[in-house]
Amino acid sequence: MTEELHVVLGATGAIGKAVAAELDARGHRVRTVSRGAATGPHHVQADITTTDGAIAACQGAAVVYQCAQPRYERWVAEFPALIRTVLAGVEAAGAKLVMADNLYVYGPVDGPMTEDLPHAAANPKGRVRAEVDELILDAHRSGRIRATLGRASDYYGPSGVNTILGPTVFAAALAGKTARWVGDLDQPHTVAYLPDIAAGLATLGERAEADGRGWHLPAAEAITGREFLGLVRTAAGGKPKIAGLGRGAQRLIGLFNPTVRELGETWYQRDRPFIADDSAFQKAFGPVKVTPHDEGVATTLDWFRHNAA
């Protein structure tokens, strides 16, 4: 086990759990942090929305993985302030920051997304994610900290219960309900498997040449909703019905579900190809093996079968 301390913020969330497990498997000394009660011997309870809490959480760290985030509908109101306190904690520790990021910064694009695209999103969530990224990269450029960002698309996997694919696809299929893909069933979409995201973020934390920029994390090939739900149906025994959830249904459900309502702002991710190009990561750090979708789907269904209420 390495002596350097790797700290995972938001460690009770799906990405945080996966990152902590990956770091442990790689032999790193790990501290997990969340606002809730302790979940293990190396867990720290801290409120990282405060400067004091973030400094305490990051104390002694060599690398900090920022996997915490506000509720989806609270991103615009709360994300920049959260990142400012995290930056204060990372700076006080003299640590490197690895940000678990997404693809909102680009807005609608034609063709596969690459890291050199402008951060041109015009919607509120895209703009705030661009603001957050700039706060982090400004801190890196000014020498306050070292930082890198790992971007992933929609994800699925063990513990992925608060995702667009968790309840509506895996839990629904196992409950004998219709498994629903949010968006056009026949548009290719990059979806990432949680352990692959965690492996990518851990690599960014280990490699100095990752610093100072964003990277698209490796994922299996883009897949249509119809193809993905077909894999779920096969792995679940061929019984679940499958369907798409279109814009009209999203608007209707959004009348009483704030999270679904917020999806309308980024519907361009759902009605056309949404593909992330990970070739820069593969060239810099690879070749990186990713989990085939059929294997990831089977493992995720098994987790939901034994863990989801």
Automatic annotation (TrEMBL):
NAD-dependent epimerase/dehydratase domain boundaries: 7-211
InterPro entries listed in its UniProt record: Epimerase_deHydtase, NAD(P)-bd_dom_sf, NAD(P)-dependent_oxidoreduct
Protein name listed in UniProt: SDR family oxidoreductase
Classification of source organism: Bacteria, Bacillati, Actinomycetota, Actinomycetes, Streptosporangiales
